[in-house]
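Case study 2.
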Amino acid sequence: MAKSSYVLTLRLKTEPFQEDTLDKRFEISRKMYNACVNELYKRYRTMQQSKKYQKVQKMKKGKERNVLFAELNTQFGLTEYSIHAFLTPMNQRFSTNIDSQAGQKLGTRAFQAFKKVMLGEAKKVYFKRYGEMTSVEGKSNKTGIRFVENRLVWKGLSIPVIIRHRDVYAHLALQDRVKYVRMKREMIKGRYVYYAQLVLEGVPPPSYHSNGLKQQVGVGRVGIDIGTSTVAVSSKKETILAILAPNVVDYERKIYLIQRKMDRSKRAMNPHKFNVNGTIKKGNKEKWVFSKRYGKLRNEYRELHRKNRMIRQQDHETMSNQLLALGDTFFVETMSFKGLQKRSKKTEKNGEGTFKRKKRFGRTLSNRAPSMFLSCLERKLAYHGLELKKVNTAKVKASQYNHFDHTYTKKPLTKRWNDFGGMKVQRDLYSAFLLMNMVDDKKLEKIDRERCIKEFDLFLENHKKTMSELQKQPHTFKSMGLK
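Prediction:
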């Protein structure tokens, strides 16, 4: 069984000449990755044209079909090791800049991305454009990209990392074995900043503050009802109804204005690339020309997205730590967030006779990232040998269940409160309470009604405290039922 690992990110103290060398190596890596993707497409199309593939494609799904597909993949070179062999001449050609292990990892990345196309999980693999290669990694800390004595060493470069004297977490983490190193760069305020990401063996060390341990795992059952923009949590200690990533700044208006300016600049500099009606000319292979102003606007656009991404990640980490203190057995309903991002297929009209918008939750999911929050929580639980138990949504129907009379009632999304004989309970918190009281078996398809009856009074007390605190807050969402 593979040992668990975690990542420590340290900023590099680079000199201008080192940055030039790193930029060159990232560009070489991009071209090598694109060459692998191009070769995979060629081999895949050749395989699709073969009679054997067409025959296997028509077969009934099963083990026999999978075995024949695996044989075809080997025959036409659609395997990870065949791509490593394809990269060998390139590794030799660029040996002064890219080591063989880093080259092989690029081939592995390309193959893993293309594998999704082969399995029908993705429609296509995109080639990386100039500047889009942001990371290169090795396979071990023995050769290639290495971390030695607080320095990143790679093909003639020796760059010190920045470790603050008071950064206790970093000093404790560096006592663990370095499995391999990843070079990463990020555009911040118009210039690249470089980092060394150390993949360390073990679990992250605990964070300390003046009062003791910062992150502690509680004891008990916890139910989580995740939404597109909010999360409801129920435990014996307390209930929580909170906005996901509350500190994410709404930059929509700024981003929209920057995009308009970029589009005007692009059209002014490239009239030969557009038709009279404003559409882009097909088949025109002349180079795009961009002004300095366009470059500045693009950097502003990237910076706004970067800020949002960092704030969102920090908020998710904080919320995950808060939940870990509530218990050690977590239940959450399975939900397809990708399905919620898609546009509605139905064409409908509202009461005024105008067509309804087909857009759904794409922008909200992008800003609040509920799936990322669950991944963050799942990762932290794994460090403590725990797991996030995923409940079968279709069979449990927590939003419809009433534990008092053991019935199911379908409710519209606009109805945010459940009325139990004059006793009102917030819908999301009640769903979280029901999930907390699941029958803990392998199937996770049934709510323990007796446990619900036993624990409901305590839940009601916690519920009242939570809702009274939310009433005092200036900013809440309509879905919380307070507006």
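The mean pLDDT is 90.
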